[in-house]
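Figure 3 (text version): structure tokens given as input.
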């Protein structure tokens, strides 16, 4: 018999047991969690769109016009005019031929990667890529070659040793979800060309955030002229404040995925309320450069504040800021004490991050005020001193 209690006790002893906290208000820069009004420093709602009035209105209109459910998978009869509109608009935004919406970032990665590669193929994967990419590779039954984080030299060595495989795929987060740093995309593009590999990037944390127009890491790094050769995936659940994901690229790629991607084929289409919200969010993401400018200002202000306190932070202009503590127990203690001070930031432990690299994962929003950030820095200073971390 499976002993659930014992498994849970094991986790408890290693300080790795996870527990749900419950949000009792709207998802915003301040919100009510477990009965307490706290400053939100851990959502991926970077532009503050999850509770945007204009998006709520668009979503409600779609329910009135099209109802609540989509009724079937896209290929049966769930493909509504709204899905088509969203996909056309995403392709236009990303300046690609075509785009396809998936039900979440997690299932998009499963669906794309397992359709691209299989037995006899090989995938080269950054050690810090998102869990959904790892799961996708396992599902595809492809050979997995992990390379050390952003280590293009080792990656090239691994590729050279992989002549016996059929298809080769390099896959990377463009902004790493737990570290907030940006992939060495120029190197990856060069290697993919030199060795005839497919290249796929996961823009979950870059879409809407990076680049003047929010098109992501390729825009930010000035590499958009290379996009023809890249399979770009991104989510609508983070900066877009909604739900779902997309992949974009050539017409042929999209047609292929419609035919081959099981995570696209065998699931019910996203409902009208969600798709209409994403359409509105896309419009706002494209037209609101000021939100990205504000976010950038917040990032620079907060990182400078942390440096001043003695924490080591990188210069990456992304809203994900890890405060590496190391020990899982101490990390959770830090998070708990901050919550008492009305700051909500989650501790992140193995297996989400490597052993010995537990951390507070701070994320910033465009809608945080300077006062919010000053409040957070003061509380972080207080608690870090109590725990003898600074
Ligand atoms: C969040 C995330 C996903 C999963 O997206 P969901 O829409 O939340 O399922 C995939 N890849 C990366 C890098 C992510 O950070």
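Below: residues designed for each position.
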């Amino acid at each position: 018999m499976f002993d659930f209690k014992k498994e849970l006790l094991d986790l408890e002893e290693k300080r790795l047991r996870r527990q749900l906290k419950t949000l009792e208000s709207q998802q915003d820069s301040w919100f009510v969690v477990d009965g307490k009004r706290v400053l939100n420093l851990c959502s991926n709602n970077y532009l503050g769109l999850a509770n945007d009035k204009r998006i709520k209105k668009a979503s409600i209109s779609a329910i009135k016009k099209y109802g609540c459910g989509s009724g079937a998978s896209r290929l049966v009869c769930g493909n509504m005019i709204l899905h088509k509109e969203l996909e056309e608009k995403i392709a236009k935004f990303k300046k690609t031929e075509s785009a396809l919406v998936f039900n979440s970032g997690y299932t998009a990665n499963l669906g794309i990667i397992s359709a691209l590669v299989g037995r006899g193929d090989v995938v080269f994967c950054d050690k810090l890529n998102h869990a959904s990419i790892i799961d996708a590779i396992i599902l595809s039954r492809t050979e997995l070659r992990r390379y050390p984080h952003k280590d293009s030299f080792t990656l090239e060595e691994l590729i050279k040793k992989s002549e016996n495989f059929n298809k080769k795929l390099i896959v990377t987060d463009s902004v790493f979800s737990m570290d907030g740093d940006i992939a060495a995309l120029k190197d990856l593009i060069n290697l993919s060309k030199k060795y005839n590999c497919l290249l796929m990037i996961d823009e979950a944390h870059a879409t809407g955030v990076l680049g003047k127009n929010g098109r992501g890491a390729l825009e930010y790094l000035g590499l958009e002229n290379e996009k023809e050769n890249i399979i770009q995936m991104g989510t609508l659940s983070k900066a877009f404040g909604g739900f779902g994901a997309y992949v974009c690229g050539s017409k042929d790629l999209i047609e292929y995925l419609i035919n081959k991607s099981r995570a696209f084929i065998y699931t019910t289409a996203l409902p009208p309320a969600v798709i209409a919200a994403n359409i509105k969010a896309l419009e706002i993401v494209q037209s609101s450069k000021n939100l990205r400018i504000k976010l950038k200002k917040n990032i620079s202000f907060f990182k400078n504040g942390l440096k001043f306190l003695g924490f080591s932070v990188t210069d990456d202009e992304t809203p994900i800021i890890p405060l590496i503590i190391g020990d899982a127990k101490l990390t959770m203690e830090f998070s708990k004490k901050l919550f008492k001070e009305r700051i909500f930031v989650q501790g992140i432990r193995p297996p989400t991050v490597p052993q010995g690299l537990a951390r507070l994962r701070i994320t910033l929003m465009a809608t945080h005020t300077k006062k919010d950030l000053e409040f957070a820095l003061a509380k972080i200073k207080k608690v870090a001193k109590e725990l003898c971390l600074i």
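The domain at 16-46+289-386 is CATH 3.90.1150.10 (Aspartate Aminotransferase, domain 1).
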